[in-house]
Amino acid sequence: MLLDLNNLDCSIRLASCSTGARQLQIMIQMNLYKLIKFIGYIKYYLGLKEHVTIAVNKNIVFHRRRSNADRYPIQMLSVLFDRPWKTSDARLVLEDGSIWRAKSFGASGTQVGEVVFNTSLTGYQEILTDPSYAGQFVLMTNPHIGNTGVNIDDEESNQCFLAGLVIRSLSICTSNWRCTEALGDYLAKRNIMGIYDVDTRAITRRLRQDGSLIGVLSTEKSQTDEELLEMARKWKIVGVDLISGVSCTAPYKWTGNTGSEWEFSNGQNHGETFHVVAYDFGIKHNILRRLASYGCKITVVPSTWPAAETLKMKPDGILFSNGPGDPAAVPYAVQTVKDIIGKVPVFGICMGHQLLGQALGGKTFKMKFGHHGGNHPVHNLRNGRVEISAQNHNYAVDPATLPPDVEVTHVNLNDNSCAGLACPKLNLISLQYHPESSPGPHDSDPAFGEFIKLMKANKLQTV
Ligand SMILES: NC(=O)CC[C@H](N)C(=O)O
């Protein structure tokens, strides 16, 4: 029998098989796919136990009494027709043994990583291209993602390094004048897995309660749940150098600038130019754009670039960038920082701050679930102001391990963790969070001005 599935006159009759007490007859005009789904809703949401009759153009095509085999009429009917809507085809298996069924988008395959939740309301593309997320699945707590698509200007690096993206709802369309591509196509091209239709709220509550968890995301049916769980339990992120996988391999001069339409702090550079060497531990482009806006000429160098070579360039200041993974797993970077501090003004951001903390004699530790989002209140102890900040870190410097001449300048108001350091005698400042934001509020942008002041004062002293 050939059926025009898009235009059928269908009727459903649900009748009580034993008593006949409950009868429901609906005449509707809908396509058969919707009809099948609709019957599923009636049976499972209203809890009806009756047998089902579907009549299509008055020809009965499906009629079954309720029996064990009839418990899933949607699935039974699906053998007759290919379903055009997507069904669950992915699993996220967490190391605590929980299994989350979801729908995949982007790339397919099997990927392991640490699951962290990000509370930013906007800026998923900047988050996807932040190299500090290497080795991590980013779960967005904002439930609706993908509505603005992606564009070439909002990249924070040239690649997506994260393990994958976990979202509640994937926008079915894009609507933005800057959009050049849909999120799913973008991720597929970059071989990054994504899942949607997963209870992100429940996973976030679990992470908040139990701490960040390792997970395995898979679209491969050949892998059993037990195999994926074992993979999650065996994988380690603590103690691993992730910087070497994201840093540039040779020095380069930064030539990009903040487009004038995005510039919000005119006249910051006062016509003066400073040469900054930026260590790329996984640097976000907006750090470079903001430094350029403040009048810096920037040379970006790889994470393994020797301190002596950097000092030979006679920079006015050195920036230690953000970067992925465990700051205690990169002793070579801590040594470079040690060899530099005290000789040139320095500014550390996130991983850079953690490396400075260690170079000063302190220790870092892994937080329960870290800080990831654009709404973290930070108390700037130097001027008394509260900044709403952009954050992305799982580790922090333990201030109790620092020598007395190191000043804690900023405190995260959510958990009182150390959010900024300074050591005036070494011309050193650092922030655990992201003054460049992208995405996030701009409250902390003046930190770049502080770095300029340090370089200026040092320049005056040395002439
Ligand atoms: N954004 C960053 O630099 C992150 C620093 C470090 N990888 C952490 O998770 O704490």
From TrEMBL:
Sequence ranges assigned to domain Carbamoyl-phosphate synthase small subunit N-terminal in this UniProt record: 88-218
Family: Belongs to the CarA family.
Lineage of producing organism: Eukaryota, Viridiplantae, Streptophyta, Embryophyta, Tracheophyta
HAMAP family assigned: CPSase_S_chain
Protein's recorded name: Carbamoyl phosphate synthase small chain, chloroplastic
Pathway field: Amino-acid biosynthesis; L-arginine biosynthesis; carbamoyl phosphate from bicarbonate: step 1/1; Pyrimidine metabolism; UMP biosynthesis via de novo pathway; (S)-dihydroorotate from bicarbonate: step 1/3
Broad class of enzyme this protein falls into: ligase
Gene Ontology biological process terms, A to Z: 'de novo' pyrimidine nucleobase biosynthetic process; cellular response to phosphate starvation; glutamine metabolic process; L-arginine biosynthetic process; pyrimidine nucleotide biosynthetic process
CDD domains: GATase1_CPSase
Entries under NCBIfam families matching the protein: CPSaseIIsmall, PRK12838.1
Keyword Ligase tagged: yes
SUPFAM superfamilies: Carbamoyl phosphate synthetase, small subunit N-terminal domain, Class I glutamine amidotransferase-like
Keyword Cytoplasm: no
Alphabetized UniProt keyword annotations: Amino-acid biosynthesis, Arginine biosynthesis, ATP-binding, Glutamine amidotransferase, Ligase, Nucleotide-binding, Pyrimidine biosynthesis
Primary role: Small subunit of the arginine-specific carbamoyl phosphate synthase (CPSase). CPSase catalyzes the formation of carbamoyl phosphate from the ammonia moiety of glutamine, carbonate, and phosphate donated by ATP, the first step of the arginine biosynthetic pathway. The small subunit (glutamine amidotransferase) binds and cleaves glutamine to supply the large subunit with the substrate ammonia.
Annotated PANTHER family: CARBAMOYL-PHOSPHATE SYNTHASE ARGININE-SPECIFIC SMALL CHAIN, CARBAMOYLTRANSFERASE FAMILY MEMBER
Gene Ontology terms: cellular component: carbamoyl-phosphate synthase complex
Assigned EC number: 6.3.5.5
Reactions listed under catalytic activity: L-glutamine + H2O = L-glutamate + NH4(+)
